[in-house]
């Protein structure tokens, strides 16, 4: 796969986004928009990619990224709280809310209850 380049023996990867490369741990979330994806980075930058969300989901599954809806892929490292009951949203550290589809409520609930890593569940 020519879009991924290993940089060290501890298997850190850089994703080639055309003009620059991004470490997966720097990605807050990815929002799919048709055949394009907007990648939101922790430093506040937003990068438009001509790849689909499905492509990034496959590429980033080893990093624990979760897909709460058809249009978003989230890095669980940056989740500050999750509301699975009323609002059905994931709130990130930068105060962005990502909606959770009704079909993903139970799988996400099971995932986080097994991980015991959920902060602010309501």
TrEMBL record:
Signal peptide: none
Highest taxon listed in the record's lineage: Bacteria
Domain HTH LytTR-type: 27-114
UniProt xrefs under InterPro entries: LytR-like, LytTR_DNA-bd_dom
PANTHER family in UniProt: STAGE 0 SPORULATION PROTEIN A HOMOLOG, TRANSCRIPTIONAL REGULATOR-RELATED
Protein name: LytTR family transcriptional regulator
Lineage: Bacteria, Pseudomonadati, Bacteroidota, Cytophagia, Cytophagales
């Amino acid at each position: 796969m020519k879009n991924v380049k290993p940089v060290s023996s501890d298997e850190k990867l850089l994703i080639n986004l055309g003009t620059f490369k991004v470490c997966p741990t720097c990605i807050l979330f990815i929002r799919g928009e048709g055949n394009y994806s907007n990648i939101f980075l922790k430093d506040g930058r937003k990068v438009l990619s001509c790849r689909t969300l499905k492509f990034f989901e496959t590429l980033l599954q080893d990093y624990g990224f979760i897909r709460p809806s058809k249009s978003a892929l989230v890095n669980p490292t940056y989740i500050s709280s999750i509301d699975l009951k009323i609002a059905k949203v994931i709130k990130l550290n930068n105060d962005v809310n990502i909606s959770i589809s009704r079909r993903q409520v139970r799988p996400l609930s099971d995932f986080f209850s097994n991980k015991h890593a959920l902060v602010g569940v309501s």
